[in-house]
Every structure is written in structure tokens, then in C-alpha cells.
Amino acid sequence: MNTFLELQVASNKYRKQLWRYFYGGKKNLSKYLDEYKNHELNALWLLSIEKPAELSLFLDTPFYCLERLINNPSYKFYQVEKKKGGKRDIYAPNDELKKIQKKLNYYLQASYLCIKPEEAHGFVINPGYLGAKSNIVENARPHTQKKYVLNIDLKDFFSNISAKQVWGVFSSYPFNFNEQISTALTLLTTYDRKLPTGAPTSPVISNFICLKLDAELKVFCSDNLLNYTRYADDLTFSTDNPISDDILLDIMNLIKKNGFFINEKKLRVRSSNKKQIVTGIIVNDKVNVDRTLLRKIRAMLHDLSKNGLHDTTQKHFKLLGYVDKKYQIQFINKLQGYINFVGQVRGKTDSRYLSLKRSFDDCFSFKEHTDIKEVEFKIEFFNKAYKKEDYMKLAINSYLSGDYKIAANFLDDFIYTNRFLSIETNGMVNSLKYLLEYRELKSIKK
């Protein structure tokens, strides 16, 4: 891999060839650029920008639109609940600005990959041709079988990064953009003089901001026999020697010197006789999943196999009445996400992961159920006996015609307009719900 200094030299030397390549395709790639990997070429093109007109061309946005977004950025403010209480402020850019930030993020990610320290694992792309990966598992792995693990969380990570710091990233190493371009990029990626939580560019810019912090902590940890990794705002240190108050104080001072604040409520040192957790992964012996999560997954799967998707979703989200399909799909995604997490941590060949995956597949009818035809026969029989021309009749006819989405809508209307159902009708409603779940889940699997 080329160093960033070499890339900067190359971006000046091959400016014309770079612009021809990105606007004319592979055939216009100079033989001198053929040695560079994809992410390095992307970094080269970003580095080659020198004029506002080139920035406009690079972002594929007319200059007058770019000027408007720079002077009057539009964000939507809302709050989301945190897992452990409190609310997180989100500033989401409008579609026009978001499109620009997504493109910038793509090329900033490529640039960061060229200088990424091995200790950083969060908000990093993983091109297959590089081999090494950055994720929560790799972030936790260096801390396995250590006598002491120290967890530090940075408080209000994005919002404590100022526009001045962002301008400093663009105007100095590694980018060294001129004042015009640095200012434009800063105004396109910050809001209210800080890095907004919700902008696509904030995560990668925070990694650039942390380069100095990562370098200083790496040196400190090397001198004091500590392992160090960072996943976004989660900093982890581990060692086989007791972590003294002096070492802890030195680490905290280094963090504060770099302009960050520590969430002291989340600061903890765990010895090996207690559960040691790094980014949600147990590291006492090897990278592993918390038993609490495994029990939760098994309970969800058991409930699902016994009571079906509708009732299990209702219980899981503590909902009343008929459960909308969006919640049912949300439940599916959540459960599947938990199981995939087990596979990511323990490996795709792990017996426990394979067992959970089989149970999931069985629960969600991804194999043909032997009773499907029997239930369909009951529905068809009920359809002939049912004289009323209402939503139920329309739902059944739509199902038998193969219009499953329309059938689901009619069934929702029937349930909404009929609060009190006979035992027989209620049985048919449940049968049809079961069939529609089956068809919907088959389509999700595809």
C-alpha cells in the first residue's frame, strides 16, 4: 500500500489523467496509475481537487446549488431514545445535502483506509482485496485472556467535534486542501458549528479527528504494556498488570488534551474473575456471545414456534390489539440480526449458531409445512359456506386468487370493522392470518 504522502505527490502529478479516468472509464487509466488499488484511486481523485469548479464537478452538483447548500444547509431535528435511558439528538440532512454527503463519505472512507491505524475498527470500509477486516469482533479480539480490561466511553462524541477541528482536518495533513476547498467541505459536513449526529459524513470525519489521539495512545500503551483499540467512541485497554491510578489518570489526560470528554458513568475496570465485555462481546477466554443474549434468542424462538408470529410480536413489543405487519417484519429482522451476530462472533460453522439458524428457518416456514394444504382446504370450504359479501369474503377470494397483499389488506379491514367474532369466524381469521404470514415470510426469505 502506498503512503499518503506518496498519494499526495501522485495526485498532483497525474491530475489530468485522474479526471480523464473518472469521467472516461478504465480505458483512460494511465499506465502510471495502473498500480493503484481502487480505494487509492478514489483517494487520489479527492486529493486532486483544487478549485470550487472542480469540487462542483466532483460532487456532480451545479455550482449555484452547492453554494446554496453551503450557505443554507437544511437539517431535520428529532430525538431517539437511548437504550439505557435519555434521548439522543439527531440532525438529518435533507435529501439534496444527504446525496452530496454520501458521495463525500465514499471518497473520505477510501482516503481514511490509506492511513487507518490498526487500532481503529469503527466506521471503516472493508474491501475484500485487502484481507484484514475492521468490525466489533476484531476490535474485541486483542483483549481476550487479559487479567484487566479498561472500558472508556467518549461523551457526546460527534457533537463535541467542532467545525474548527473539521476545517483543521481538511486544511492540513492528510488533505492539505486550500482555504476555499477546506471551508466549503467543512460547511457541507458540519451544522451549528459542530459535527451533526445523523450526517453520513460524520463517522468517517470523526476517525480523521481521532488520528492524533490514536497515535498518542498507541505510543503510551506500548510504553506501558497495554493493548489498545477504538471502535468509534468506545476505547478499550487491556493488560496482565494491574491498572494503577497513575496510568488511568495519564490516559484520561491524553483524551482530554485531544478535546474529548469522558463519560465517567461508563468508565470501568474489570478483572478476569468478572465478566469482561468489549463492544458487546465477552473476552474473558475468547471472543464470545453473552449467555443472556443466547437465552433471549432461544426464548424468542420458542415463543415463535408455540404462538406464531402475530402473538409473539405482540408480546415482544408489548402491543395491544392486532399487530401491524411493519412490527412483525421488525421482529423478524431483530431476531435474525441477533442470530447473525452469534454467527459473526462464534463463526458460521459454530454448532450453536447453526442450531439457532435451523430453528429460525423452521419457525418461519421456509420449508413447506405439511398442514398448509389442510388449512387452505378449510379456507376454501369456509368460503363456499360464507354467504356475506364483506371484507372477509373479499380477503378469502383474494388469497385463493394469489393476491396475498390485497388479501392481507381486506383481512385487516375485516378485523377492524368486526370487534366480536363467532368462534368459527375467529378460527377462519386465524387460519387466514397463518396462511398470509406463511406467504409473506416466504417472500421475505427470497
H/E topology pattern:
HHHHHEEHHEHHHHEEHEEEHHHHHHH
- Please summarize the sheet with the most strands: 4 strands, antiparallel
Structural class computed from helices and strand pairing? alpha+beta
- Give the strand order of the largest sheet, numbering strands 1, 2, ... along the chain: 4-5-3-6
- How far the N terminus sits from the C terminus, by CA atoms, comes to 39 Å
Number of beta-strand segments: 8
Give helix % range.
55-70%
Which regions are unreliable across 5 or more consecutive residues at pLDDT < 50? 366-370
Number of helices: 19
Residue fraction in strands: 5-15%
Shape summary: globular
Can you walk me through this structure?
- The strands form three sheets. The protein has a four-stranded antiparallel β-sheet with strand order 4-5-3-6.
- β1 and β2 (87-93) form a beta hairpin.
- α1 (4-13) packs across α3 (38-47), α13 (291-316) packs antiparallel against α14 and α13 runs parallel beside α15 (351-363).
- The chain has 19 helices and eight strands.
- By secondary structure, it is an alpha+beta fold.
- Helix content is 56%, strand content 9%.
- It has helices at residues 4-13, 15-24, 38-47, 52-58, 63-71, 95-115, 136-140, 163-171, 179-189, 202-209, 211-223, 245-257, 291-316, 325-346, 351-363, 372-385, 391-400, 404-417, 423-445, and strands at residues 75-81, 87-93, 148-153, 227-231, 234-239, 268-271, 277-278, 281-282.
